[in-house]
Design brief:
This protein has 129 residues and is of the alpha+beta class. It is built from four helices and four strands. The chain has a four-stranded antiparallel sheet, covered by helices on one side. The radius of gyration is 18 Å and the shape is globular. The termini are far apart.
Length: 129
Amino acid sequence: MHAQLGEYKLLILFNMKNHYETVFILTPVLSAEQVEEAVKKFRDFLTSNGAEIIWEEDWGLKKLAYPIQHKKTGFYHLIEFKAEPELIEKLDLEYRRDERVMRHLVVKLDKYAAEWAEKRRKKIKEKKS
């Protein structure tokens, strides 16, 4: 019985999903439908690979701090999700292969950042209602 309990704890440790946040910037030459299609592609990629999407935000067209590919604006999108660590390399590769993505960043959230993100989500939900 004791050995089984140890195996159970090991299973829990290896099946733990980490909390991540990704922000990507899409090229400003896209139409609204093309932007939505690109966002859907990454959303579907995450869910089809076992990620659990917690929150999404469309930040819209924003001015860049510096020109990227001779462009001064871009469509920003944030996705907060839980996933296995192995998925992050695959996601990075998907971003790099898609020519619509000008920049991307994936960050693993520690417990403090996750708490802050939850407070931020609540504040946004309160503003909408």
